[in-house]
Q: What sequence folds into this?
């Protein structure tokens, strides 16, 4: 009996020890996994671009546009406004990568020189102005020698490339002329952006209506298609902006100016031209999501950024 009790005690002790050993092994394995995961996390941009010669090539969509947003460049009070401060108009909060890159790459109207100078990045106006090396109504946005300064310089000297394109071997020819597309971009889209997108834009679809691309406009909402291309008199959108009796009146904040209503009527009569063919959004970058992979993680900015 005594021997039996001793054996049971030994077996119990062995089981406890084995469990403790497995727990320690599991904790060690988890610690190693956490350490490996930590190694995969890329340092914040504020650390990666501290040195001028970091050797890192910033991505326009992942680094440059978020930085411009952080600096307030594409806000409604600056270059994201309809007028565009200093003749530089960017999309509000950077939703249109193509248009923003085209605006930055264009020749400046207000001063001699280019906004981007790949051959001499330091002489680019997007460097000179926010560092107040030349007059800038927005004041100093960052200091020379800062990580923001280094990030933009590295992007410019690396070729100042825009949002990457997945590439389309056979692109459908647009049925609209270049003048019609320009009319939409410069006249119609700003009207929609300023008066309609809050309720029927990219993140809001009141009445199941989205005006974010031509296909969705033609599909319409709960009341049916809102435009009939070529026929403004049969289009609900035109009736709404005219504030006709017994018709929905848009925008609800008040009737548009006569010239804006006329512009929308002209646009519908032209067939409702839209960039990149029939159904592409103005900011379409031809990118196709083929895989969602969030490792290794990348921290663009530190937690302290506001």
A:
């Amino acid at each position: 009996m005594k021997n039996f009790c001793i054996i049971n005690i030994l077996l119990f002790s062995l089981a406890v020890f084995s469990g403790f050993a497995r727990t320690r092994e599991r904790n060690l394995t988890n610690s190693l996994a956490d350490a490996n995961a930590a190694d995969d996390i890329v340092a914040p941009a504020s650390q990666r671009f501290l040195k001028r010669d970091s050797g890192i090539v910033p991505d326009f969509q992942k680094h440059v546009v978020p930085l411009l947003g952080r600096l307030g460049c594409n806000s409604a009070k600056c270059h994201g406004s309809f007028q565009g401060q200093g003749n530089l108009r960017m999309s509000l909060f950077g939703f249109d990568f193509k248009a923003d890159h085209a605006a930055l790459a264009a020749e400046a109207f207000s001063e001699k020189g280019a906004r981007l100078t790949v051959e001499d990045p330091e002489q680019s106006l997007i460097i000179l102005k926010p560092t107040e090396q030349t007059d800038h109504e927005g004041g100093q946005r960052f200091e020379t020698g800062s990580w923001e300064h280094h990030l933009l310089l590295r992007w410019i000297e690396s070729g100042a490339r825009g949002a990457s394109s997945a590439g389309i071997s056979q692109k459908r020819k647009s049925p609209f002329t270049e003048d019609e597309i320009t009319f939409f971009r410069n006249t119609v889209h700003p009207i929609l952006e300023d008066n309609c997108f809050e309720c029927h834009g990219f993140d809001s679809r009141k009445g199941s209506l989205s005006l974010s691309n031509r296909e969705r406009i033609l599909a319409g909402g709960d009341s049916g298609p809102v435009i009939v291309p070529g026929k403004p008199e049969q289009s609900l959108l035109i009736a709404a902006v005219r504030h006709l009796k017994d018709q929905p009146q848009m925008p609800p904040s008040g009737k548009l100016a006569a010239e804006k209503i006329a512009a929308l009527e002209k646009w519908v009569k032209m067939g409702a031209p839209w960039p990149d063919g029939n159904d592409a959004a103005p900011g379409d970058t031809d990118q196709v999501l083929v895989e969602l992979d969030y490792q290794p993680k990348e921290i663009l900015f530190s937690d302290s950024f506001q």
